[in-house]
Please model this.
Amino acid sequence: MTKNQLVSIFFIALFLFILHQVLKIFAVFSGPIFWGAILAFSFYPLHDRLRKFLGPRDWISALLVTLFVFLAFVPIALVMMLNLAGEAVKFYEWFASAAAEGKLKEMVDAFRALPPVQRVEGLFPAAVLQEKYYEWILRVAAFVGNWGAKQAAFITRNLFSIPVNILLTFLLVFFFLKDGHAMYRFLYGITPLEEKDKQSIFSQTTGAFHAVLRGQVLTGLAQAASSGIIFFALGLPLPVLFASITFFTSLIPILGASIVWISLAAWLVTQKMITKAVILTVLGIFGISLIDNFMKPYLIGERTKLPYLVLFLGILGGLKIYGLAGIFLAPAVLSLCFTLIKIYQEKYL
Model:
């Protein structure tokens, strides 16, 4: 081994060690960094237009856009969180009361009394089904109780850190907007690939991330808004809570928002509100869920060029590995993988 080779190996090992330590340091702020980057990426086109209008003073346009995002999101988010917290408490109290008074058992019995359910139950031993139903009720009751205790403990424990993380997130939004182009050019410049390959990789990754972000958020908001209006119009309890849950479930491929409206339709049936259950089912199929079938393929599939099955499995895997961030990261990683495969085919095959 020559001296130059030894120096190169030492330099690479030292660089990787230092890079690992830097990542560990910034991992403490991974939440604010990720959501700050998401917001900055979403509103960068607005910043870019404003920067062209104001001239070379990037910090002014970055500050104005950051203030706009802060004032547009934080007050609405606080109002929504307060309403959501109030409705979540009501739901928890109702569920605990229903479990203690035996109302959950009555709802299960009403559901089992439906002719289609009885026909399915006829295929299995009655004793086994009875035991499974009661076991399910106990598990759900225990889950709801544990969830309520965990949320109360989480809010109490993070009463100070939550506002700090919000402020840190918007501080990062400002710097990502102000210096985002320089960061992009830096990463672009140090990437050791040919110019054509770099353009392909960066363009495809940026486009895929933008398409997924826009598609997921816009589809989720449209489904949450439509479901909230429908729930409110039908007089269902806690419409804000279930509309908020619809937004998050809409991020899940295939099942999506149907998880919420199907559950509510089943509950209406157990309450013998058949007309409302039928209306909710029709509006759920041809309204709430149909939004997903039209918007996501148009906003995500066309831009990323990913097969829907690959996208579906990727998002599920991303959720498991990265949590909520995986919904946005997984499609971008998959798109990058397909781009690298294409470059490999062109150069080496």
